[in-house]
Write a structure and sequence with these properties.
The chain is mainly α. The protein is built from seven helices and no strands. Helix 1 (6-21) crosses helix 7.
Length: 223
Amino acid sequence: MLRSSWWKILCFLLLIYVCSYGFIVDVPKLDDRLQQSIRNFFFHVPMWFGMMVLLLVSLVYSIKYLNNPTPINDFYASSYAATGTIFGCMGIVTGALWANYQWGQPWSGDPKQNGAAIALLIYLAYFVLRGSMLDDEKRARIGAVYNIFAFFMLFPTLWILPRLTQSLHPGGQGSSGNPGINGKDLAPSMKLVFWPAVLGWTLLGVWITTLKIRLQILTEKHL
């Protein structure tokens, strides 16, 4: 039991650590605007990291479904996409709260914000598409193809276009680093919380997804 659940225990401990030490760790005072709001960095950015990992796993299972069309591959693909989309929504919400303090309003039309919104709308369309089809095999097959398209749309919307235009996020206008994080700018004290936060939030996403998959499998067996 313990051997198979070690990663769940690790997830719990990491998030307890992040949600406690993250509010008391010394953070650098960069300017009068950031101040203590920089602690949102331990939640906002790691959620995006977790989203990317979850959606990558979803992509892998969509490809596996096209090669081996079994219901379990479709369950994994759709479930990881759902949890990844939820993490993306939480990333947008935490980012909007942060932006309200830093930029004076929750939504300023920044290229990074707009790109994130477009990316999430593409994934929401994935679930609308799946929900519009009654045939299970057709839903899974077309959903797998669309899911592959949706994942690769993350790159222009989140990583490429915001770097080529004027952005309030760090790293705009094609400068080095992606708009949102530059590891060289992180203080050592913040790294002690940030990287455990990335792992903790990602493990939480996997944990939630495994529960969702188990529920789907039980529902299918019952039907």
